[in-house]
Write a structure and sequence with these properties.
Blueprint (H helix, E strand, L loop, with lengths): L13 H16 L8 H24 L6 H35 L5 H26 L1
């Protein structure tokens, strides 16, 4: 049974699904980029999407612990992967911007939407981690 969108709740791990969807969408969408731009646009976009997905998975695999002492020992590693994902998202958006200025890309709004949504989800995730033990 379907739930109306306004009644749907955001999943706590939606950032994982969105990162995966961003990588898949990027692989499919880069098929429209001509072969002459393979090394300058196509491969960098795919690699960037892969790094985003991997960093988010790595960060999520580091459990934030049950108490403050454990959390503080794991915090820097987890936060490092989260920050790496954020930085890579900015890199991804910049490559996409360059691509959109050179080529007429289909689904550009959807493409950018995936990246912006993932960025917002990662920010929320970092904030929830911060609030957990402060």
């Amino acid at each position: 049974m379907s739930v109306l969108k306004r009644f749907q709740k955001k999943s706590e791990v939606e950032f994982l699904n969105t990162a995966h969807e961003l990588e898949i969408f990027t692989i499919q969408a880069t098929k429209q980029i001509p072969k002459t731009y393979t090394f300058t646009l196509k491969l960098p976009l795919c690699e960037s999407a892969r790094k985003i997905n991997r960093n988010i998975r790595y960060a999520n695999s580091i459990f934030p612990a049950q108490n403050r002492n454990d959390y503080e020992s794991l915090r820097d590693t987890r936060r490092g992967y989260q920050r790496a994902a954020q930085i890579e998202l900015q890199n991804y958006l910049e490559i996409l911007r360059v691509a959109s200025e050179i080529l007429p890309l289909k689904n550009l709004e959807e493409w950018v939407g995936y990246a912006v949504r993932e960025n917002d989800l990662v920010k929320s995730w970092i904030e929830s981690d911060f609030k957990r033990y402060t």
